[in-house]
User: Fold this.
Amino acid sequence: MSDDTLTIEIDGKPCSARPGQMIIEVTDAEDVYVPRFCYHRKLSIAANCRMCLVEVENVPKPLPACATPVADGMKVRTRSALAVAAQKATMEFLLINHPLDCPICDQGGECELQDLAMGYGQDVSRYNEGKRVVRDKNLGPLVSTDMTRCIHCTRCVRFGQEIAGIQELGTVGRGETTEIGTFIERSIDHELSGNIIDLCPVGALNSKPFRYRARSWEMAQIETIAAHDCVGSNLYAHVRRGRLMRVVPRPNDEVNETWISDRDRFSYEGIYSDDRLLRPMVRDGDEWHETDWSTALETAARGLQQAIAQAGPQGLGVLTSPSATLEEHFLAAQIARGLGTDNIDHRLMRTDFSDEKRDPVSPGLGMSLDDFASCDAVLMVGSDLRKEAPILAHRLRQVATGGGRVGFVDSEHRNLLFPVMAQAIHPSARLAEGLEKLLEATRESHTAAGADDVHSSLAEMLKTGSRTAIVLGLRAASHPEFGRLRTLAGRLAAATGSTLGYVTHGANSAGAAMVGALPHRRAGGDAVAGKGSNALQMLTHPLAAYLLHGFEPEWDTAAGDTALATLANAGFVTVLTPYLTDAMRSYGHVLLPAGTFAETGGTFVNVEGRWQSFTGVASPVGESRPAWKILRVLAGLLGLEGLEYDDIAGLRAAIETVTGHPATEDAPDWQDSPAGLDPEDTVVPLTTLYGCDAIVRRAAALQATGEAGRAPCREVSA
Amino acid sequence: MSDPAREEPAVLPEHVREELDRWIPQFPEGRQRSAIIAGLRAAQHENDGFLTPQLMDAVADYLDLPPIQVYEVATFYSMFETRPVGRHSVSVCTNVACMLRGAEKIVAHIEQRLGIKTGQSTSDGRIFLKQEEECLAACCGAPMMMVDHKYFENLTLQDVDEILDGLE
Assistant:
């Protein structure tokens, strides 16, 4: 037996354990079930519910398995008379004040207390006195409360302290009058707060939008992937008769652990928004008509062909949402190139394309999320990370709480709810100066007298860590001097031996880049000889015809309202969209209802380069169809060959063939400095938590939170 | 720990800040949470016997803690009042020894004289008849009551009247 394992006996069976482990970790690993309420493997140990009491030989009283460290030769009995008596007594005690309202409780059917009461409870209560009643708290639009049901396990309180980083809930009062609450009525607004719904082992904290909508046994549980940020959190969709009723996390320790952001949890409401486009629509003069699919597709193909016949292939522009699937990006790029143009792009929020040659073939962190979370030092450049990708912000928090150091170069202070080593704040227009100073500071062998403390401590942080990362956020990516920022960050990374990474926009920027939804690269990353227009050019200089997929130009592009005017001047615009808006009526000519991520299968490539495929989980709304099928049929009608994929597996296999051997990339030498736009008079789009895409903007509960903001705000940098 | 949703925290009186500054170094670095009780006690004393949310927020800000951690402590201990009460806190012991020596008559007398029930404050904000205590360890002097942390023992009704009348 080596020093770092010891042997204990559980119910007569020898098991190996590591010193410092608690009994319950060993029993869980051995698949021996010990009942529990307060213990959760991602939270600290409270040992306050007493449900996990077990017998340990030579100890006269039962011990809590969650808080008893293992010792060599320890003999644990989880089902002995003493252990079971203790567990039953605890259960009886917990049920004294717990209401018997399971029939009207949303947790009924998926309730840890209900399950354990079946296993350990008695059929008749000996308790005749009055039960405790607790006034419900209003915690805002996402979490409903029935505090009388609370058993004070404090998982929600510990979640706030340890995971969210801000304690919003607490145990108020004492003894029988103890309540979980905020004391002063306030909503809980943290972007991960919905996780307390899953943590709550009883029906005290539940999903407010889902309240009274369905019972757990009526729904099918289907695996899917989150579609709103670059993490690609693993989800379960709970579906009843074809309708997505709610979303819960699917544990994956490598990606989202057991958490998901509120955005991923509650965005499903947007799928059933009132303004869904239900049937294909075609414009005739100023009149809009609903029509059937074949008419609409033929009109679209004819319109695009006519425009090309008149203006040439360069008159066509194809734009896709960065949250579209890999398959959709691939087909859109194939259509553009098949029709003879390189005018295809998905980088809708970007303003500076001056050094696009240096874009990685597959942008991302350049390391796995686990590696990122265990970095010694991370420098974030231009990133409002809690809004850009909440789970990535949680991973960054793990860096800081795990002994690593985190610093920022940004235009404003960010409250990340964890200790930050230094924040170098520079006005947005002069953000690059911050990196220049930092680069200078790395060249100094010792901190020179009079040197700027912030920059030299950031430089020291990057130089001393053994695994360090510099990450450009979405604020940097849409900055008018992105090229310059990236070049400086690249030099800084080279000087300090750090990995240069990116927070990627939307759910699938990495995938879009890989399959050639770019004017300067083909699928697989090979450079294009000619010069296609990028997204900003296409949206500011009218082309003859457009094919748009999955975004609202007024909100989702750097061009903003200018994009609307540009599109209105185009001869022919075909839009694949789940929603019908007034703006689309004004610039579109054919509107094709495309399903949301819940209604289509596909693949997202996340920020660590992980391919995650999912199937459609919900029935299509109206006559909407998966966008990849629409694009495939459209390609056929346009006379393009080689794109006749019958199923999504075949399509994905084709993509894997193309991207399987990406063009080798030389590390950029960062020599020349690109000239970007004038930062003094360029409007920079800002990331908002609940304004990030069309689905989220239509999710009613999210829009009712304090973090809401249907429209992404914009600022003129200066 | 700024939070635009809540009201601006009060400014802590000098004495409270001194008290906190004295207590914070008594605990290991980063364990300033342990100084909450000292801060609340001083703050309550300076505020005529009760705590307001603004005062509790101010203590939280001073200690760089989330306000809820201060609320937790303030609501846990019965010596802290988290709603407005009278300036002088009066509690009569009604445990066995005092009960046998007529404590219940004293409670009834005070309630009748002040026109309030136990748990209420007089409308002029002078006296808060806090609660019936369960033994304050002064059984040899039963019946007894506690006024602002001071014990008064071997009480008669006349004594009670004099004590109450002497409160400002």
In short: The first helix of chain A runs from residue 23 to 29. The longest strand of chain A covers residues 234-240.
